[in-house]
Write a structure and sequence with these properties.
Helices cover 29% and strands 27% of the residues. It has 313 residues and is α/β, with parallel strands linked by helices. Helix 1 packs across helix 8 and helix 2 packs parallel to helix 3. The protein is globular. The N and C termini lie far apart (42 Å). Its EC number is 2.7.6.1. Pfam families: Pribosyl_synth, Pribosyltran_N. Keywords: ATP-binding, Kinase, Magnesium, Metal-binding, Nucleotide biosynthesis, Nucleotide-binding, Transferase. This is ribose-phosphate diphosphokinase.
Length: 313
């Protein structure tokens, strides 16, 4: 008699509940039940309210600030491990602390490496994430990492816009590889912004490498935090003769005065995914769902089939 593979159990961390519900619906499953106990000092304890023994478990949660989001994921992984789950996959649409991927000055931590070790120690046997800040973070893990690209979401949207005279732009030198990958698919030119930082999140000078005169420009980045770089780049390109400037950023952190900067800028629109729950609404921000992408990859992982078709870049 052939062996029937049992369906996986899908659970959500509290910070990603809405996205997890959409992923579970796209997968064709129900979210598992989890309860949280909280102490008066802020300590919390998750508890699975159903058996996971021998099951494949997917735990969905982005680890954006605050650090409680990371701690919640770690506790959920540990609970699944101690409940004898067979496979435990951390589904992290946004992998937090990824900007600390190297020592860029003396006596600082490599936070992304530390988070990778914590996830594995907690019990993760696989990681599914999207648009890491640096590709080499995959090498911090000893477990398999499925690194998805939001280009599979953004490129169809850009094609639907039907923009002529399109130019892809990188807001900094570090994102030039990502911009080139988009331009190759869209058969467009590439321009790059060169910026100098006074300190974190503060730009002292920005210059443009390339010509944007008469072009519809699409800025490409993995995340938007304070929106200082994006809005400064958009304003600079409009000054240099661009017809319009829009930006696509996978992870909408949007801290500080980001919303105000976007509203006051010359950006036509900012296109993001829902890897991080939006803090508020803005007419300039277009949110595209990544639920179907993650649901499809989770299904392929569970049934041991290829996910290479999910990579356009």
């Amino acid at each position: 008699m052939p062996y029937a593979m049992p369906e996986p159990k899908i659970f959500a961390c509290s910070q990603s509940m809405k996205l997890a519900e959409e992923i579970a619906e796209a997968y064709g499953a129900e979210l598992g039940k989890v309860s949280f106990s909280r102490y008066s000092d802020g300590e919390f304890q998750p508890s699975f309210e159903e058996s996971v023994r021998g099951s494949r478990v997917f735990i969905i949660g982005s680890t954006h600030p605050s650090s409680e989001n990371l701690m919640e994921m770690l506790l959920m992984l540990d609970a699944a491990k101690r409940a004898s789950a067979r496979h435990i996959t951390a589904v992290m649409p946004y992998f937090g602390w990824a900007r600390q991927d190297r020592k860029d000055k003396p006596r600082v931590p490599i936070g992304a490496k530390l988070v990778a070790k914590l996830l594995e120690a907690a019990g993760a046997t696989r990681i599914i994430t999207m648009d890491l800040h640096a590709d080499q973070i995959q090498g911090f893990f000893e477990k398999p990492v499925d690194h998805l690209f939001a280009s599979t979401i953004f490129l169809p949207y850009l094609q639907e816009l039907g923009l002529q005279d399109l130019t892809v732009a990188s807001p900094d030198m570090g994102g030039s590889k990502r911009a080139y990958a988009y331009s190759k698919f869209l058969e467009s030119d590439v321009v790059i912004c060169y910026k100098q930082r006074q300190k974190a999140n503060v730009i002292s000078h920005m210059e443009l490498i390339g010509d944007v005169t008469g072009k519809h420009v699409v800025l490409v980045d993995d995340m938007v935090d304070t929106a200082g770089t994006l809005t400064k780049a958009a304003d600079l390109m409009m000054e240099r003769g661009a017809k319009s400037v829009r930006a696509i950023c996978t992870h909408a952190i949007l801290s500080g005065n980001a919303y105000e900067r976007i509203e006051d800028s010359k950006l036509e629109e900012l296109i993001v995914t829902d890897s991080i729950p939006p803090k508020r609404h803005s007419d300039k921000i277009r949110v595209l769902s990544c639920a179907k992408l993650f649901a499809d990859v989770m299904h392929r992982v569970h049934h041991n089939t290829s996910i290479s078709s999910k990579f356009l870049m």
